[in-house]
Write a sequence for this structure.
């Protein structure tokens, strides 16, 4: 920041007008204001964080000693990533999820790969289960649970991690003072991430786009390039945003799931190739995995991809680049891929779409 002559002022900031911010006793004026205040772990009534027995995703990173057991509320990316990490350290982990599946917004076939491995490792996953009450005592916590068939159960653990999403940090920013519109705490934005107030922009977790660091970074680039007079893309295409779940095995994806495409009325086909068909996966003892390519039935346009397995968060980008560059599966299928590599599974999934997979 010093190298680029960026002035840094620390403190609580509040908008006083479209181009004026007050930070303590200091007033800063500017032609444009970019709000990038991020988010925080979302609290649930009755399950409030104390960061001792009831942990947020921030608090769990501050632990100096490992608990013997950990209950995790929420089987989204954050909950599953911490379940993976804690299990790897020898902690007994139980995940409680209200929906019928872990990682409910991810592709079902990709999730199946992860769930199978988690079960093998001894991670318990209670899906379709609601946590109704929390009791704390000296030895740990007790969760009262209600299963989808109406049964009442109890879960005891030393600590509880509540990972049920994140809330935008949009309070006390003076948004009402200047008339910036919000909905459910998220700042509303239009093209180039400008709010309804000219000269006030917002990016990242404080707006209603995927709450991912790489999304915030790219949104910031788009907004600031526009402020500087360089008119590039107006905003990110949601279907071009890669999603990554950093468990082991990993899940990397972009675009809609089969269910979402069906809901949209899109006619599509799929090509699914197992990791085991790529020799390197067997050689490195990481043969559990899948590459799924979804493409338009008529034009073969790449619509989405869902990868589960070793290095999935890296492999998915070849397919995303192809979609972004308006390439077709045949372009990937006909390109030479080094052997042995995991990327051969990507090539074979593309060959499957064209009907000429060799190692299927």
């Amino acid at each position: 920041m010093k190298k680029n002559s960026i002035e840094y002022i620390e403190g609580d900031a509040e908008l006083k007008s479209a181009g004026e911010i007050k930070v303590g006793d200091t007033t800063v004026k500017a032609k444009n204001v970019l709000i990038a205040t991020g988010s925080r772990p979302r609290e649930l009534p009755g399950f409030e964080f104390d960061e001792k027995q009831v942990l947020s995703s921030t608090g769990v990173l501050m632990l100096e000693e490992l608990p013997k057991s950990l209950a995790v509320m929420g089987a989204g990316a954050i909950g599953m990533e911490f379940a993976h990490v804690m299990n790897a350290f020898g902690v007994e982990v139980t995940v409680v999820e209200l929906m019928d599946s872990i990682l409910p917004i991810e592709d079902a076939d990709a999730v199946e790969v992860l769930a199978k491995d988690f079960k093998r490792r001894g991670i318990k996953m209670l899906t379709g289960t609601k946590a109704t009450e929390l009791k704390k005592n000296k030895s740990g916590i007790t969760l009262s649970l209600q299963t989808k068939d109406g049964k009442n159960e109890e879960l005891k653990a030393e600590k509880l991690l509540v990972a049920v999403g994140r809330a935008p940090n949009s309070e006390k920013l003076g948004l009402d003072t200047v008339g910036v519109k919000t909905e459910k705490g998220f700042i509303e934005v239009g093209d180039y991430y400008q709010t309804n107030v000219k000269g006030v922009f917002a990016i990242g977790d404080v707006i209603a786009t995927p709450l991912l660091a790489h999304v915030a970074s790219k949104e910031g680039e788009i907004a600031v390039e526009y402020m500087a007079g360089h008119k590039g893309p107006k905003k990110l295409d949601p279907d071009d945003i890669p999603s990554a779940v950093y468990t082991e095995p990993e899940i990397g994806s972009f675009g809609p799931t089969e269910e979402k495409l069906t809901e949209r009325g899109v006619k599509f086909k799929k090509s699914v190739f197992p990791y085991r068909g790529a020799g390197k996966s067997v050689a490195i003892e990481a043969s559990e995995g899948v590459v799924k390519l979804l493409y338009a039935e008529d034009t073969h346009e790449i619509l989405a991809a869902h990868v589960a397995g070793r290095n999935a968060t890296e492999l998915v980008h070849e397919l995303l680049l192809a979609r972004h560059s308006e390439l077709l599966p045949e372009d990937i299928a006909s390109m030479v891929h080094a052997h042995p590599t995991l990327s051969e599974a990507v090539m074979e999934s593309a060959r499957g779409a064209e009907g000429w997979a060799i190692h299927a």
Remarks:
- The chain has a mean pLDDT of 96.
- The longest strand covers residues 129-137.
- DSSP finds nine helices and 22 strands in the chain.
- The two ends are 52 Å apart (CA to CA).
